[in-house]
Design brief:
By secondary structure, this protein is an alpha/beta fold. It folds into three domains: about 5-55 and about 95-160 and about 245-310, FAD/NAD(P)-binding domain (3-Layer(bba) Sandwich); about 160-245, D-Amino Acid Oxidase, Chain A, domain 2; about 315-385, no CATH class. It is built from twelve helices and 18 strands. The protein has helices at about 15-25, 50-55, 95-105, 150, 215-225, 275-295, 300-325, 330-345, 345-355, 360-370, 370-375, 380-385; strands at about 5-10, 30, 45-50, 65, 70-75, 80-85, 90, 110-115, 120, 125-130, 135-140, 160-170, 180-185, 190-195, 200-210, 235-245, 255, 255-260. Strands 1, 2, 8, 9, 10, 11, 17 and 18 form an eight-stranded mixed β-sheet that branches. Strands 6-5-13-14-15-12-16 form a seven-stranded mixed β-sheet. Helix 1 packs parallel to helix 6 (about 275-295), helix 6 (about 275-295) packs antiparallel against helix 7 and helix 7 (about 300-325) packs antiparallel against helix 12 (about 380-385). The termini are far apart.
């Protein structure tokens, strides 16, 4: 007899959400986290699209700021903007929100174990090895992030990009706290620099790309020194993390194990964000895991991968094409493209069709209207978008 019906490795927001769903169904669930304290250190920009409240519980107390629009800057500082009437996104207190989600799982009956580092896993027999003990389960759920111990057993091609973020305070009301800012530059593509205001005086300023940690710090510091809003800012904290690169070929089920969240590279290629996708997949996975356990048929787990690909293949494929288009442009191209987008009043289209989490409707509109072909070099746009 197994110790648990389900063992979840990783008590981040996606793992905790899965554990809650599974425990709600009456399954015996254990949640193992290698950190001594959930959510610490912060490793996320904390900007979530407004769909968050459709896919998970979010009390107002964890919302630090509501974002209504975005400013996009070219390398030469040409700006285009978009704005929604309702909040486009929320800036979250991720540390306390992560703790809240873990507590919800515990309240439903999941057993939480902190400071438990997994040393090994047997996905065929459902065994998890720690320094001084072994735990068994019918099904193992890997929710342990970009460096997933569970994912390593799958033999997946797991690549990451580096990310650096500063918490800054200017001491002045330098920020329009209704808008977040994105600066693009071919030097760091497919990544970019973001400025996410927490208030009119403070913000999270970060960068992700495939450079090393030291190079990203250098680039970010140079950017801040040249930005009027940031050049005199005080850096209160620095954070460092890694973002998994989405790979459509990776498997997310194998034998008695499944992957969710960052461990499954369930991230948007264009932004590196993945919580919305992760929360949705946690719900789908919990239902399929419950069915597999109650029917004692592990083959049912294959439905999880099928459902995930059915739901996200088209969207993420489109985002990969957008990312590829961005990577193909040098700074002169980027300046020209953003200037032409501004001349085409793209902000109005983005305001109507733009969505942080579902970007394919906007891209289809731009393709249908011909805007893409008017701003991108013809050969590049046709090669990338297949038209």
């Amino acid at each position: 007899m197994k110790d648990y019906e389900v063992v979840v490795v990783g008590a981040g927001p996606v793992g905790s959400t899965f554990a809650r769903y599974a425990a709600e169904k009456g399954l015996k669930v254990a949640l193992f986290e290698k950190k001594k304290e959930i959510g610490v250190p912060l490793q996320c920009a904390g900007l979530l699209g407004n769909k968050i409240r459709e896919v998970n519980i979010l009390p107002d107390e964890f919302i630090l700021n509501k974002i209504y629009g975005a400013h996009l800057y070219s390398p030469s500082n040409t700006m285009i903007s978009m704005r929604k009437k309702e909040p486009l996104a929320y800036v979250l207190d991720r540390i306390n929100y992560d703790k809240f989600l873990a507590q919800l799982a515990v309240d439903e009956g999941a057993e939480l174990f902190l400071n438990h580092h997994v040393n090994g896993i047997d996905i065929e027999n459902g065994e998890i090895y720690f320094k001084d003990k072994k735990v068994s389960a019918e099904i193992i759920v890997g929710a342990d992030g970009y460096s997933s111990v569970v994912s390593n057993e799958f033999g997946n091609n797991s690549k990451t990009m580096q990310a650096v973020q500063y918490l800054v305070d200017t001491g002045k009301e330098n920020f329009d706290d209704d808008y977040f800012q994105v600066n693009v530059n071919s030097e760091i593509s497919p990544g970019f620099i973001w400025t996410i205001p927490l208030s009119k005086t403070s913000a999270r300023v970060g960068i992700f790309s495939d450079y090393d940690y030291q190079s990203l710090n250098r680039i970010l510091n140079t950017f801040m020194a040249s930005d009027e809003k940031l050049k005199d800012a005080t850096v209160l904290k620095k954070y460092h993390g890694q973002i998994p690169v989405y790979n459509p070929k990776n498997d997310i089920i194998k034998k008695r194990a499944i992957l969710i969240g960052d461990s499954a590279s369930q991230v948007k290629p264009t932004t590196g964000g993945g919580l919305i996708i992760g929360f949705i997949c946690a719900k789908i996975a919990s239902e399929i895991v419950y069915e597999a356990i109650k029917s004692k048929n592990m083959d049912i787990l294959k439905n999880y991968q099928k459902e995930y690909r059915k739901m996200y293949k088209n969207e993420l494929t489109m985002q990969l094409k957008v990312q590829k288009a961005y990577e193909s442009l040098n700074n002169d191209n980027l300046d020209s493209v953003i200037l032409k987008l501004k001349e085409n009043e793209i902000g109005k289209i983005v305001s109507e069709y733009g969505d942080l989490d579902s970007q394919s409707p906007l891209m289809k509109k731009l393709l249908k209207s011909g805007v893409i072909f008017s701003v991108l070099p013809g050969l590049i746009s046709r090669k990338i978008f297949g038209l």
